[in-house]
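Researcher: Please predict.
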Amino acid sequence: MTTAILPTFISQLVGITYAPTALGLIQGTSDAAATIMKLLSGFLVDRVTYYKPFLIIGYGATSIVGLIGFATSIWSVLLFKIIAWMARGIREPMRDTWLSKTISSKYYGRAFGFQRAFDTLGALLGPVSAFFLLTFQIPLQTIFFISMVPGLISMLPIIFLTQETKETTSKKLSNDIVQTIKKFPPKFNYFLLSMSLFGIANFNQALLLYRAQEALNNESTTFIMTTSWALLLYSLFNLIRGISEFGIGILSDYYNRKNILAILGFGIFTMVCIGCMSTTTNIWFWIILFAFAGLSAGTVKTLEKAHAADLLPESIRGNGFGVLQAIDGIGDLLSSIIVGGLWSLFSAQIAFIYAIAISFIAMIVLLKKQ
């Protein structure tokens, strides 16, 4: 809900001229905060006895993002987003490591795809809910507050519906994170290189939403119409993303995960960036573009984790997930700030040319045999 309405909220705070830069700063900085926590969580996950307490805190505290409804400046928006995303960073390596230990390696694709699909189901219901609330003229600030309710409820299944036994595997690992990283297999390090390249091109979807709003905004459309179209496009994005996360996850259990990730993940993202250079007001164009964006996002989010689990030994898998997700966060920071900055300083076309070039290079690097 908050991601769907944030571009409109930011444009009201700073105006349309500086909105791309502000969005890039907010999304990128909060992702960087999550990155730091992912590194810490990934370091801890191979050293702690229980994961459950970290997940309860991580899921519950993420709902703080709803306090953006109180914000009267960019800096207060940034503060609430950073706190929420730090909580998000805590939970992810813990969750992914716990999941990988409960599932046979031959089913990693469908397991991570299933988890991602349900995560995306929430991301689908969120903008749909925001859309209906907007049609009843509910203020944006109120929608932020409402978003806190499902966030807090998300702790309950973890508290009451999961069971955890004390880890029996050895936790005698070095407390030097650098020494642990040095133990990563060469193939995983090469995979990190390709994900790093893609990360600095893969800008936050808030900028994709803003691009659609900018293109669809004309004299014949009202503020509510443009915002509503953006919410529906974001809902479509998450619908396709959720379907592809589970479907592509299953497919990857039978075919080469790396090649599917490169072509359907990185390659289609490159095509989406090419489409974003258009200024057409044809809604069907944007519907198709957001559908392909959802396919790309679903493929990347599922297969990067499944492929990483294939490459990492169990004893350092949590550290590996933490570093991988940290690289994702650093990429989000750099890509959002760079694309948003190029957009504001020069043009949207220049910003997307940058993303096209880097994502294409990342695809070629990943496809190279290792």
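Model: Residues 2-152+176-367 form a domain with the Growth Hormone; Chain: A; fold (CATH 1.20.1250.20).
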